[in-house]
Amino acid sequence: MKLRWRLGVIAAIFLAIFCLYPQLKAWYVHGDAWNGHYAYNDIDEVAYASYVNALIDGRPRKNDPYSGRDHTAETPQPESLFSIQFAAPYTLAIPARLLGIGTPWAMTLGGAFAGLFAALAVFLLIGRLTGNNWYAMASALAVFCFGTLAAGEGAVSEIFFEGFSYPYFPGFRRYIPALAFPAFFMFCYMIWKMLAAGRPNTDAEQPTQRMPVLSIVLAVLFYSYTVYSYFYVWTTAAAFLACVVLVWLVERPDGWLRDMKALGMTALGCGAAMIPYAYLLSQRADTMDNVQLLVHTRQLDLFRFPEYVSFAVLLIIIGGLALKLIELKDRSVLFAVALTLVPFAIFNQQVITGRSLQPIHYQVFIGNYVAMLALMAAVGLLWRKGLAGQGKAVRPVCAVVAVAAIAWGFVECHYTVRVLDWANEHRDSALPVAERLEELAKSSNDPHRETVFSYDGIFADDMPSVAPQNILWARHQHVFAGLSWEESKERYYQYLYYSNIGEDQLDAMLKRDFVSQIALFGWGRHTDRLSFDAKPLTFGEIAEESARYGRYVRDFDRSNAANPLISYVVVDSGHQPDMTNLEKWYELDRGEVIGKFILYRASLRDR
């Protein structure tokens, strides 16, 4: 079948629009008042953008934009989640630096291109698998537009239940997993291409013995990109390859030995790509394990929405076999079976490995999309005779599916984007402050070591995505490797102290505020979504931590105030804070009014 790429491009354009929707909405609503920031799709994107910004500025791979600490021969730094998963951020940073594009535009365009190429990859895969362009177009839209629904998340929670419309198109969180998606689906396509190459054209014809070297090489390259982009995507790719091998070994279609050789060579290449990864992982910071919540367990996990979808797909395939609409020996059917098994594999691999790492990320960032891909593949194979014959019903049905997917995509956009509208507007209003800090950094010998203290938490989290200075404390600070866990906690103590938060106030905050819980106890103590082994905070732990902070406040002295040395202070003029504790130790200038914010220069007072 000749692919009609214009149909694939239609699907790709709609996916790019959905990826740009938050930005387009911001431009439409605010018009010329918009300062030029990127509208984020997920609150975690500020950390990813900060790392990209550091790379654009020419800082080394092992950098920490929040603490200002970079890897040098004199001050070696451990590996972080970001420095290990470097492929995707460099994909944005290198062209951005060459073209002189800032981080806001790099994030905006990166998301759009990720959606565009991911849709084209699925179009290619389903088109080759089913032999119909219209169905491939509908599938490319359905896989991504219904992906959040397949995770049991997003707008459906609010529309049909009393839940919360979040997250927005999770697969296109920038830049992970967004940039890893095209590589993942192209990896799946390359596996199919090498398997299809050995399929006899007639019953009498023997499968070709030529080894599909190019497909193997490309599969390894695409896999390697996922390895150095996002953990949950590459492990899903590995699970898919394992499922293909398992299905081929069990069913043994004609020419299976030749297929196993090709798959074996692919597995060897993928394994070789893992060697540098294993080394980088061995050099990781101690704090990385605390953030990632690695749990040792062999507990089954069979009640996830992607698994429900996969179970339905298995029933569809069994029904098709019973009605003799498909044959199990057919390579395309076996390929669909392998796809269907992937969600069960990724959610239950801990039965074999004994290790579980935040399985919710499989649910919303990759497993749901694989389940949808399996569904579209299975339905297409059952309908293959109609699709191959280009019957009268094919185009109308495919058009209905495509329109339904597009309509639901806009529903997802409407409900989930508005959750972040206020935060995006606030971030954009503070962008001129970050740009002013970026300008001031040009006259500094070492701007990365200059510390900014912000009373505004949203600005603190977002500032490193534009400005080169480090921040005293921000919500995503601990996901980098520049600070030890104790240093990160002490910085939060300083943030609380300068904010005039007392011991009793912290005690109350720890009982209701998940940001404080994360800052002082790490991820996983505020919710049971992330881990099998979630342990809610006890009143005893809260009381002990509050007392520890109280002692810190009572013992606070000039050495504490000078470490780190604060150079700038940012205040939202509409929420003027009590700066009594800060001004005990620092002298502030008259301040520079920038929009609704005030930027102060700070200098440590004499003894």
Radius of gyration: 26 Å
Mean pLDDT across all amino acids: 93
Structural class: alpha+beta
**Total number of distinct structural domains:** 2
What are the SSEs and their pairings?
Blueprint: H1 5-30, H2 45-56, E1 63-64, E2 69-70, H3 81-84, H4 87-99, H5 103-130, H6 133-145, H7 147-150, H8 156-159, H9 180-196, H10 213-227, H11 231-251, H12 256-282, H13 286-292, E3 294-296, H14 305-322, H15 331-348, H16 350-353, E4 355-357, H17 360-365, H18 367-382, H19 384-388, H20 394-417, H21 421-441, E5 451-454, H22 457-462, E6 470-471, H23 485-498, H24 503-510, H25 514-521, H26 539-554, H27 558-561, E7 566-572, H28 580-585, E8 586-588, E9 592-594, E10 597-604
Parallel strand pairs: 5-6, 5-7
Antiparallel strand pairs: 1-2, 3-4, 7-10, 8-10, 9-10
Overview of this protein structure:
The protein contains 28 helices and ten strands. The model has no long low-confidence stretch (mean pLDDT 93). α9 runs parallel beside α11, α10 packs antiparallel against α11 and α14 runs antiparallel to α15. It is α+β, with helices and mostly antiparallel strands. The strands form three sheets. Strands 5, 6, 7, 8, 9 and 10 form a six-stranded mixed beta sheet that branches. It has two domains: 390 residues, no CATH class; 177 residues, no CATH class. The chain starts with a helix and ends with a strand. The longest helix has 28 residues. A hairpin with a 2-residue loop joins β9 and β10.
